[in-house]
Amino acid sequence: MRLAPFRILLGLFCLLVAVWLVMPTLVIIPMSFNEKKSLAFPPSGFSWQWYENFFTNPDWLSSFFNSLRVAGLVAVAATLIGTLAALGLSRMKHSGAGLLRAILITPMIVPGVVLAIGIYAVYLDYQLVGTTTGFVIAHTMLAIPFVIIAVSASLEVFDVRLETAAASLGADRFTAFRTVTLPLIAPGILSGLLFAFVTSFDEIIVALFITSPYLKTLPVQIFTSITRDADPTVTAVGTIIFIATTLIISAGLIISSKSTRS
Amino acid sequence: MTARERGAAIDIKAATKRYGNFTALDDVTLHIEPGEFMTLLGPSGSGKTTTLNVVAGFTDLTSGDLAVGGKSIVALPAHKRNIGVVFQHYALFPHMTVGKNVAYPLTLRGMDKQARDRLVVRALDMVKMADFAHRYPSELSGGQQQRVALARAIVFDPPLLLMDEPLGALDKKLREWLQLEIKRIHRELGTTFVYVTHDQEEALVLSDRIAVFNQGRIEQVGTGRQLYDEPTTLFVAKFIGESTSLRGEAQTSGNETSLTIAGQKIVANGKLAGGRKPVVLLRPEKLSLAGTNTPPAAGQNSLTGEVSEAIYLGSGSKYQVTLRDGSVAIVRSSLEATPFSIGDTVDLRWSVVDAKLLADDDRADMTMT
Questions:
Q1: CA–CA min distance B104, chain A (Å)
Q2: Which uninterrupted H or E stretch holds B329?
Q3: Which one of A159, A161, A169 has the shortest CB-CB distance to B104?
Q4: Domain-wise residue ranges, chain B
């Protein structure tokens, strides 16, 4: 028990860090039930009006559905490309594999603004600004690294010799992949898919550059709304997104931890 | 149709495999009879596993031919060869139950569920794992997993079964029991078995014939008895069983070679062609020890040495005798023989006819494990 005071201090410190990390996010939850049209904290009174506004105001709803559509397409495209890339990389014996992997991961490391400027410049020329295609291409690029990382992690624990065994039992390469490899790396693919979806769904920097009045994603709508008229609807939206992404990411983490368990 | 007829003959003809400058297989030719249990024996890197991978279709030949049942399969990919393979690392599919694993090759062959279930049960029965059909591989011990892997490799009734050190990861007791199981399954199936191991005892227990590999070549093919009694190379002699090799200044006269070892002369029948340096090879049970005061019998060789180790084995004794030239002889004597102790000066005796004259080969010692 000699350690008790130290332990209490340690506990308090950890709590402080936890509060520091989580508080800014949690603050929006009480604010979203504010009675007044203000972003003041602490809020006063209780009402559902900002949630109501979100679900009835066409600006908010259309941006929400834009985000869903873009993120859905991005999730599929990035998962497909990222999975194939991870498979290829895992089988490359060439020393270039490391370099190739680094290149494929760069969109995750390069500052968003730099990417955004580059993408914007090119999109202006090709008239992709404000189009779903433009959003999907840009966000897919940003999401591919997440898929590659998730799928590579499950390929790391996948025993390639199982494919040899499948071949000896009569499976051609595609059948062996479908019946042995795919089911065993499926958790990695699924978690990659979820990460890709979320990456696109809450992406703001590139989106701000390539948005147009005709195609706004939800983060763009939040940003313009809060800079223009301090509409508390953003807190309701924030709460919804926060809860949804927490659920999706937890699911992803649970699935990927299951797949790497052994 | 008797069980014996169900296996296929294998013909490996002048098989060569090169990786860059390294020759993994060097002009290997081997005929395996239908239904035979053939073991490929050798140290690691000797080409035995490469040979197995070539037959399975996992490795392409640089040159040469390979036929199963008289038909060349060199151009066939692994999945079209219809050959069962058992791997050292089991290679069971972890996301499938034991039953699903064993049914896998049957499902690929489009067999209906009823027929499939029947064959799966039969194969699992054969390896005594029928009660485990609903378990997952991770819930089984290594020995159990390997039995399931064996069931999966025989369930589609291949004419040839390849086994790559299947017992290598198991402990000695389990290994010995599974060796007998594999022998029984081979008898019951009548399939041709090709078994890879570096364990000479395992090879002797299991095989009809053994092919001894060394540095990408086959040194000798024969039954265990032939390899032990009539080795054609020093490598084979040293790889199979225990032995003593004697070297000395050689002289030939007629069909007889004599060696002078530390001043004492011994003789062996035969002579080597091409003036190669001879080695006299002796098996431990052909040697006997005698006091230096008793004269050798007619037709016996005698060399003086000192007992450097004496081990009582229950069924007899084992001695190490250090000869005057520094070489060490291993002697196995029966219970009735006069016992000797460490430090005794003794005569090592053997009949001239029991010695084997072989060409010296410095590779033979290098690769001993």
A1: 8
A2: strand B328-334
A3: A169
A4: 3-238, 243-366
- Domains of chain A (ranges; CATH) run 59-260 (1.10.3720.10)
Q: Which residue, B356, B330, B329, B352, is CA-closest to B231?
A: B356
Q: How much is the pLDDT for A47? A: 87
Say whether residue B82 is in contact with chain A using an 8 A CB cutoff. Answer: yes
- Interchain CB contact of A257 with B (< 8 Å): no
Each residue of B59-86: pLDDT tens digit?
Answer: 999 999 999 999 999 999 999 999 999 9
A163 touches chain B (CB under 8 A): no
Flag whether residue B156 sits within 8 Å of chain A, measured between CB atoms. Answer: yes
Confidence of residue B3 (pLDDT cuts 50, 70, 90): very low
Is B91 within 8 Å of A161 (Cβ atoms)? yes
- Looking from the CA of A106 toward its CB, the CA atoms found within 13 Å total 8
Instruction: Please check whether the domain covering B243-366 is classified as CATH 3.30.160.20.
Output: no
C-alpha closest to that of A150 among A99, A180, A194, A110: A194
Round to whole Å and give the CA distance between A152 and A146.
10
* Domain B3-238, CATH: 3.40.50.300
Residue A42 clears pLDDT 90, i.e. is over it: no
pLDDT digits (tens, 9 = 90+) for B177-220: 999 999 999 999 999 999 999 999 999 999 999 999 999 999 99
What pLDDT digit, counting tens, does each position of A204-214 carry? 999 999 998 88
- pTM tops 0.80, yes or no: yes
